[in-house]
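hey so u asked for the seq, here:
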Amino acid sequence: MKILYQIAIIFGLCLLGEIMSALLSFPFPSAISAMILLSIALFSGILKIDHIKEKSDFLLSNMAFFFIPAGVKVIEHFDLIASFWWQFIVIAIASTIVVFLVTAATVTLLIKVEERGKRQ
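ran it, structure tokens below
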């Protein structure tokens, strides 16, 4: 019964994210809306990590499974993509480098903030 409760919470937040995105006057991804709602619920204490821990751990450990439909769609439309494949490669490499740099800068900043907090 606990697993059904956790699934209901996660899917309920996804549904609320869909509703929020549909009500907005501009396009906004429903997954982002759901993550914002989840963050608000966790930070405000409305929702505890124990309420969703088991099911979220399961979903995270099986995340690769959820990329299969996207991969299949890429293969289905490969004839369209083949004409500008090199642009995909450039974008993938550039975005990977940007993500690495932003992550490194964020970690460095957080380490400095943490060290400063320890000294005071």
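The chain has a mean pLDDT of 90. Residues 69-120 form one domain.
lmk if thats what u needed
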